[in-house]
Amino acid sequence: MNTSTLVLEKKRSKKTTRIKGSDAVLQCLIAEGVTTIFGYPGGAIMPIYDALYNYQDKLNHILTRHEQGAVHAAQGMARVTGKAGVCFATSGPGATNLITGIADAQIDSTPLVCITGQVPSHLLGTDAFQETDVMGISMPVTKWNYQVTRAEEIPYAIARAFYIANTGRPGPVLIDITKDAQFAEFDFTYDKCEKIRSYHPYPEALTSDLEAAANLINEAKKPYILVGQGVQLSGAENELIRFAEKTGIPMAATLMGLSGIPTSHPLYVGYLGMHGNYGPNIKTNECDVLIAIGMRFDDRVTGDLDRYAKQAKVIHIEIDPSEIDKNVKTTVAINSDAKQALLGLLPLVNVSTHKDWIDEFHQCDKIEFDKVIDAELHPDSGEIKMAEVINRISEITDGEAIVVTDVGQHQMVANRYYKFQKSLSCITSGGLGTMGFALPSAMGAKVGQPERTVIAVIGDGGFQMTIQELGTIRQSDLAVKILILNNNFLGMVRQWQQLFFEKRYSFTELDNPDFQMITKGYGIKAHKVEKREDLDQAIFDWLNCEGPALLEVVVEQEGNVFPMVPSGASVAEIRLD
Amino acid sequence: MSLKLKYPTSTPREFTLSVLTEDKSGLINQLTILFTKRKININSLNVSVTEVKGVSRFTIVIETSKDMIDNIVKQIRKLIDVLGAFVYEEDQIFYQEIALYKVPKYAIVDGKSIEDLVSKSGARILVIETDYMIIEKTGKAKETHDLYQKLEPFGLLEFIRSGRVAISKSTRKTEAYIKELEASNSNKLSIKDF
Prior knowledge:
The structure holds 2 protein chains of 2 kinds. Chain A is an alpha/beta fold. Chain A is globular and about 70 Å long. Chain B has 6 helices and 11 strands. In chain B, the strands form 3 sheets. In chain B, strands 5, 8, 9, 10 and 11 form a 5-stranded antiparallel sheet that branches. Chain B is elongated.
C-alpha cells in the first residue's frame, strides 16, 4: 500500500468529537502512550488539572513539591524508558522553575514534553499576574517550543512535540497553552506527526563514509572505541558488542555512555574523562584510530583539545551534524545514528584481535589500582571513603541497579566504582552538572522501571537543593533507595580549592541539619552510619526493606577524587595523586 | 577551494548567510540566539518573504572565523523550522543595499546642484516635496557611503541604509529546493550549493 492510500484511509475513518482544549491535551497524551505526568498545578493551568480529575484511571499524575522536581522526574523516567517524559507547570514561576531541568535535558539529549499554562491570550504582553515570556526564556534550551493560543492548535502542537522530542537526537520540547485555549471547545481529532519537511531526524550513513571508516579500522594497529550515550539512545548496545567482538577493539565509555556496555565485558577498558580511569585517558593519545560513537567530545572528556588524540585518525559516528568537526576534526565522519552506522560497518570490518594493545590498558589498570583504587576500596583504618561504600553497593546489587547520581565528588566516585551490567542504568546530569538532579530523577526512574532497584547517590550539598521531594516520594510511595554521602563539604569545589586555590576553602563547608530527622519527618525510613564495621549490615537493611529508605554515610571530610585531568591539561597529564 | 588556502580558518572575515525558513513567529529569536550566545554582533539582517508561499528568507551578514561560521550554520540547520541555511563569501553572491537620503531642495555647493550629483552617482530622485527631496541609491556599502559624503555638504537632513540582500550565483530554483527537501528522507546537509 503506498502512502497516499494510507493518508486517504486515515482521513475517511477520522471522526471528530467536540471537547474542550483541556480535555484535548489529555487525550493527545493518552494517544501518545503517556502513562505518567509529573507536575504542579497553578492558576493558568487549572483547566487542564480540572480535566485531569476525570482521567485518573488512565493518567497517573505525580504531584511533586517543586516544578524543578517535576522536570527532573520526567527526565529520570525518560532516561530509563527511552521515551519522552512529560511534566506540567503553571505560567510564570511555575514555568521558570522548569528551565534548569529543560536545559539539563537539552545538553544531555533527553526527550521531554513540558506543558505550561499561560495567561489568557488577550492578556499576553500586559504583564498580567504570573505572566512570563516562557517562549523567549525556553527558546535557547529547547529543541522546539510552541505557544498555543487557540484550542484547535492543541493536537497539532502536541503531535509535533512528541515527534520532535523522541526522534533524531532527542531533546526537550515545551508547549505553552493559554488559559482560554484550554477552556475553548473545538472539534477534536488526533493524528500523530510522522514528517516535518524542514526536519530530517535520521540522516542515512553514506556508503563511501562507511567504507572509508572500515578501511581505517581494518588497517589500524591500535584502534580504540569511545562509547557515548548515542549507543543507548539508538538501542545499539548489541550491535556495538558484535562490532567490538568482531574487530577485537577495546572500548571505553564517557560519563553519559556508561552502562551502554556491561563493565564485565572483556573488551571494556573503563571510563573516560576528567575523573575517569587512567588507561582510557592516556591511551587516547596513543591510539592510531579513534572511533567515537554517539558522543560529542565534551571538554570534560578531551581536556586540552590542542593536545587531544593528535596522532590518531578520528572516525566520528554521530547523528547530529552540528557535533561533527565541532571540537575534534574528523578523518571520516559517519552522519547517522549509532545503530545504523554499526550495522553498516559490521559486514565491512575484518575479524581481528588486538591483544598486545589491550594488555597496555591492563598494565595501566594495575598502576591505577596500586596508586588509587586499592587505598580507596580497602582502607585499613580512618574515615569511611565514598568509594568503598559504592563498591559494596555494587557488589551487593551485582551491578544490576539503576544508579542515579547528583553532581560532585560522589557522582564521579559512584560512576567510577559502580559496575554497571545493564543498559539505561546510569542516570546522571552530565553536560549541565545540575545539583539537585538525583532525588527527583530517581523518582522518575522508579516510576519508569518499577521492578528494578533504583539507588539515588547524593551528596550533602545537592540533597538540600531538592530535599522537599522526599514529600513526593512518601505521598506517591516511590521505593527509591537514597544514599547520602555526607562529608559536610561541597566536596568537588573544596577539592579544586585545595588543589588549585591554595586550600582557601571559600564557602564550601556546610553546617548540615540532621538528615535522619528530616527524612523521618517525611515518614521515610532513615539510618546513619559512621563506622566502617556497621556499613555492610546497614546497606543490606537499606536495600532489603520495603519502600523508600535513606542511608546516610558519614565519609572522609577532605577526600579527593583521583585520577584527575586538571582543567586545561592534556588527557596524557592525568594525575594519580 | 582556493579561499581555504588564502586565509587560516581562525581569521575573522565577512560571511553572508542565507536562511530559508517556514514563515513562523519566533524564528528571528531562534536565529539571533545562536549569535548572541557566542557574543557575535550581526552587521546586517534582512527578512523577507520569498517567491514560495509560506517560506521566508533571512539574509545575515556577520564577521567571524570560518570554523565558527561552519558550526553556526550547522546549528541553524538544526532548528526545526529552518528549511535550509547557506553560507557565502563575497565572490559567491551578488548583493546590494538600498540607501535613502533626505536633502534640502534648492541647495547648491560649488556651483553644482544636487541633480547633477544624483545623475553622476547612479542614484535617483525618489520624491520631491516642498522643502526637501529624497534620493535613493542602491549599491554596496562603500558606494552608498560615498554618496553620503558627497551629499553632506548640501546640508543632508537624514540618511538611512537597509541591510544587505544577496542572491547566490547558483542556478537552483527556490521552489525546486523546497520540493527536493520535502521528498527527501535524508539530511538537509546533502544540498550544499544553493
